[in-house]
Design a protein that fits this description.
The complex is a heterodimer of chains A (542) and B (185). Chain A has 20 helices and 17 strands. With 542 residues, chain A is α/β, with parallel strands linked by helices. In chain A, strands 5, 6, 7, 8, 9, 10, 11, 12, 13, 14, 15 and 16 form a twelve-stranded mixed sheet that branches. Chain A has a five-stranded mixed sheet with strand order 1-2-3-4-17. The longest helix of chain A has 30 residues. Chain A is elongated. The N and C termini of chain A lie close together (8 Å). By secondary structure, chain B is α+β, with helices and mostly antiparallel strands. In chain B, strands 3-4-5 form a three-stranded antiparallel sheet. In chain B, strands 1-2 form a two-stranded antiparallel sheet. The chains are: A alpha/beta (542), B alpha+beta (185). Chains A and B meet through helix 3 of A and helix 3, helix 5 and helix 7 of B.
């Protein structure tokens, strides 16, 4: 389980941990604790904003890369100290950024304030909003972009220019991060309190650039409720005009306080140097922590990287093993019949390596395995458990169907499991096979399209309250496989945007028939996952 | 939030009541003349040295309290204090987690008192610490491999030597006294 260094919590009597970011590239949303739909959206955005700030700033990316390398076992103690120190000295900037940006978007959409009663985060938001005062006649969006620019500038101390130029993760030490920390820079900025200068700048930006903003909005044609498109267009205006000018004002204010920043024009050079150092340290480091070479990132770049989001459904259920081979497992078959006596009566089997089960469940050491009978059950004391019955290696769905006749079989696997040749061989001729996508979806769709396959997809709501949806994909070259993924609406929205950009190729098609042709089967597969699994992500068995 | 540090605060943590809180961190910061951020970073490392997977966000600015197994609380509290002492003696070249793992091998912390910004540490060099370098080398060989990866024999021996030379660790009722230079935040 990832160590979470930035949390999103509800404080007060109904306190709970809602989400957390690990500081190095992935985050979790704890849906069990998330109360309302609004809260869910805020938590998703909050964690994504931590990641965006970390990955798009020189301070954040060096710190995240140190953390990622330590996780890979490279100079574990020394680099974790760099990571700890970097997180510690930027905590306030991070929380202000994630809180104000996630709830400013939310406020436009909802009547109620999702932070109501949450004193800790209200304090963060109030402090962030005090950075740039509200000015009559100025679009709040411009003001929030200005607030973002101040906080981003705090993450870009000029000491990072020297560090980036000579960056070597083989020798990097915690003290190399220097004494000008983001949180100290924030305090200096607050002490200067340049209210009048801000008001002039914001009025100026509103007058000079409102036409530009309108054009950009018109080009993007955001549709109502289309949060990702709205976010993207917002990003364009913010980064091209507002961010630059506000960054420059912030840098001047800090300079007068004796703290220098990386000049706006040199952000790209510093980023390239950090990326180069990452490449020297580990072949995959630059992918684990993606830093845009051009800062600010190009519009449309997947800066929020929702593919890194994990949905934690519940603490892992205990895994109860009913049998360790086909004979003993089938002797317990009655314990695996789902919805007995109804039209949906079936038996579910899961083709997966042991690592998938150990990630999802709390279990004693398991033998090597390829296939299990699978269901959710209850212990005598009514505690829910996951129950499996191990089947002999090489069991095919067709063979299993003969054994359980007349009950129908629901054959399920995961995308990661299909990296096992034995499992692919066992499932080859079966139809349908439900494949839970637990590897990066966007990357795979691109790869299928590159190979000339056509991808059709459809989407449906799974849990409106918790904003969970399912996307189902059908790939022309493997029609027996029904690929599906359950995720947060915002994360899936980001994925749809990516798929839509692919539409022009004619190879990626939105087609509700994918869902409608097999609603019953897809629903059962989704139900098994959502009611039993611990976490839904695109990280395989990590 | 930075109230006057009291000896009871630190003694409580050292004797292992099963919790570490922001008051403990602030008291150490005042005593060592370090910002609380520095102490928190060392505490995270010391917790890691105990093998505790405490989530990072649980240690933060403002008031907080980390409920831990009593033995782990004591190990982490001692690890933090001894690491800060070793940090003061040696250079920044040894990671805090490594220091927190080797510190208990080098000296035992018996009591820590803080009053009026003064820190008094009652500690004693461990008996296991022989006089000869060969003995130290053997001791080094027994360290976990991940610790040895980031601490050379030379650094280990140097640290022990500095500890002896500094006379900062004194056996006796007066213990070691550090005056806080002030200017903390």
């Amino acid at each position: 389980v990832a160590r979470l260094v930035f949390a999103c919590e509800r404080s007060g009597l109904a306190g709970a941990l809602l989400g957390g970011y690990d500081g190095a590239g992935s985050w979790r949303v704890f849906v069990e604790h998330v109360g309302a739909k609004d809260e869910h959206m805020v938590v998703q955005l909050h964690e994504a904003m931590h990641h965006e700030l970390q990955g798009s700033s020189s301070w954040g990316s060096v710190v995240a890369m140190a953390g990622a390398l330590a996780k890979l076992g490279i100079r574990r103690h020394a680099l974790l100290e760099v990571f700890d120190r970097g997180v510690e000295l930027s905590t306030i900037v991070h929380e202000l950024y994630a809180t104000v940006l996630s709830t400013s978007v939310a406020r436009q959409r909802w009547d109620a304030d999702p932070l109501e009663g949450n004193l800790r985060y209200l304090a963060y938001r109030n402090r962030a909003e005090a950075l740039v005062p509200a000015t009559p006649g100025v679009d709040p969006q411009i003001r929030f972009a200005a607030i973002a620019a101040v906080l981003r500038c705090c993450m870009q101390p000029s000491t990072m220019v020297t560090l980036a130029a000579t960056l070597d993760f083989d020798n990097l030490r915690a003290h190399a991060l220097g004494n000008e920390s983001p949180d100290d820079r924030l305090a200096l900025f607050e002490a200067a309190n340049p209210t009048a200068e801000w008001q002039r700048l914001l009025v100026d930006l509103t007058a000079a650039d409102s036409g530009y903003q309108q054009r950009i909005l018109a080009e993007r044609r955001p549709t109502e409720g289309d949060d990702m498109a709205a976010l993207t267009s917002q990003w364009e205006f913010e980064t091209k005009v507002v961010q630059r000018r506000c960054y420059e004002v912030t840098a001047r204010v800090l300079e007068a306080q004796g703290a220098n920043s990386i000049p706006w024009s040199e952000l790209g050079t510093t980023a390239k140097q950090i990326i180069a150092a990452a490449g020297r340290a580990h072949p995959h480091l630059a992918e684990i922590v993606r830093l845009a070479e051009d800062l600010p990132p190009e519009p449309g770049a997947d800066v929020l990287e929702f593919s890194r989001q994990a949905i934690a459904l519940r603490p892992p259920l205990s895994l109860q093993v009913a049998g360790f081979d086909t004979e003993s497992s089938l002797s317990m078959l009655d314990g695996f019949v789902v919805q007995a006596g109804t039209e949906h009566e079936h038996v579910c089997a899961l083709w997966c390596p042991r690592a998938v089960l150990t990630k999802q469940f709390d279990c004693a050491p398991l033998p090597e395995l390829e296939t299990v009978l699978f269901t959710r059950a209850r212990e005598v004391d009514d505690v829910p458990v996951a129950r499996v019955g191990v089947l002999d290696p090489g069991t095919t769905p067709q063979e299993l169907q003969r054994h359980i006749h007349p009950r129908p079989l629901l054959a399920m696997t995961t995308h990661y499991s299909l990296t096992s040749e034995a499992i692919v061989r066992a499932l080859w001729g079966a139809d349908p096979v439900y494949v839970l996508m637990d590897l990066p979806i966007g990357w795979h769709v691109d790869d299928w399209v590159r190979q000339g396959a056509t991808v059709r997809y459809s989407v449906a709501t799974v849990d409106a309250e918790k904003e969970l949806a399912v996307i189902v994909l059908s790939v022309s070259r493997a029609r027996n496989f029904r690929f599906f993924h359950v995720g947060g609406l915002l994360a899936l929205g980001s994925l749809f945007e990516r798929l839509r950009q692919r539409h022009e190729s004619g190879l990626v098609i939105h087609d509700d028939a994918v869902m409608n042709e097999d609603v019953a089967g897809i629903s059962l597969a989704v139900s098994h996952v959502v009611h039993t699994f611990h976490v839904l992500d695109q990280d395989g068995v990590e | 939030m930075n109230g006057p540090a009291t000896s009871s605060t630190i003694n409580a943590a050292i004797t292992g009541v099963g919790a570490i809180d922001s008051e403990f961190v602030d008291a150490l910061g005042t005593a060592f003349g370090l910002p609380s951020t520095e102490v928190r970073t060392v505490l995270r490392s010391a917790l890691r040295g105990t093998g505790t997977a405490a989530e990072g966000y649980e240690i933060r600015t403002g008031a907080w309290r980390l409920d831990l197994n009593a033995a782990i609380a004591k190990a982490a509290a001692c690890g933090t204090v001894t690491t800060l002492i070793l940090r003061g003696l040696s250079t920044d070249s040894i990671p805090a987690t490594v220091l927190s793992v080797i510190a208990p091998l080098l000296f035992e912390l018996e009591r820590v008192e803080v009053s009026a910004g003064d820190l008094v540490v009652h500690a004693q060099l461990t008996e296991a610490l022989g006089d000869d370098v060969v003995h130290l080398t053997e001791m080094y060989e027994r360290l976990p491999s991940d610790i040895r990866d980031e601490l050379s024999v030379r650094e280990f021996v140097d640290t022990v030597e500095r500890l002896r030379e500094s006379r900062l660790v004194i056996v006796g009722p007066n213990g070691l006294r550090l005056s806080a230079p002030g200017g903390t935040r």
